[in-house]
């Protein structure tokens, strides 16, 4: 969703917002991200355009920051809502100098840190998930024999 609410005319550069070292010109919400949004974030405004509009507002107001300093895929909004995003170079848009602009592809929403305490340390959370899944697989394997 491109920014529909800016009334800009007579400009030659596409509207973009800087996030880290990326210049975001478009936001794409995946189906998985939309279902996670309805499950974990909000149940009223659940359309793709609603989510993208919320993300644009957060981008413009500098409310989105990287969760880890070195990694570029997990982000937080207002130090609470955790989401995973990937970036792809936009084939149609460049800035005035010819530098590439990016599309932010929201892969999933992990939830709110205020509601799910495990999200405060993602590395520990993911290792716990892997361990619990592995133990479940081992238990299921024992039952089959």
Helix content: 25-40%
Cα distance, first to last residue?
Answer: 51 Å
Low-confidence residue ranges: none
Task: Look at the helices and sheets and give the structural class.
Answer: alpha+beta
SSE run = EEHHEEEEH
Q: How many domains in all?
A: 1
Name the beta content range: 25-35%
Q: Return Rg in Å.
A: 18 Å
Shape: elongated
Mean pLDDT figure: 80
Strand order of the largest sheet: 1-2-6-5-4-3
The total of helices stands at: 3
Biggest sheet descriptor: 6 strands, mixed
Topology, number of strands: 6
Could you walk me through the main structural features you see in this protein, from its secondary elements to its overall organization?
The chain has 145 residues and is α+β, with helices and mostly antiparallel strands. The protein has one domain (17-132). The protein is built from three helices and six strands; from the N terminus they run E-E-H-H-E-E-E-E-H. A six-stranded mixed beta sheet has the order 1-2-6-5-4-3. It is elongated. It starts with 16 loop residues before the first strand and ends with a helix. This is Periplasmic protein.
């Amino acid at each position: 969703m491109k920014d529909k609410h800016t009334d800009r005319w007579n400009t030659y550069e596409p509207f973009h917002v800087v996030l880290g070292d990326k210049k975001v010109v478009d936001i794409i919400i995946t189906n998985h991200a939309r279902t996670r949004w309805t499950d974990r974030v909000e149940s009223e405004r659940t359309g793709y355009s609603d989510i993208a509009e919320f993300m644009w507002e957060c981008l413009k107001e500098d409310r989105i920051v990287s969760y880890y300093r070195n990694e570029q895929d997990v982000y937080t909004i207002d130090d609470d809502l955790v989401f995973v995003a990937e970036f792809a170079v936009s084939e149609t848009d460049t800035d005035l100098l010819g530098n590439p602009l990016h599309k932010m592809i929201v892969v999933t929403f992990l939830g709110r840190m205020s509601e799910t305490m495990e999200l405060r340390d993602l590395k520990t959370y993911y290792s716990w998930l892997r361990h619990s899944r592995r133990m479940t697989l081992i238990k299921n394997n024992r039952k089959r024999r």
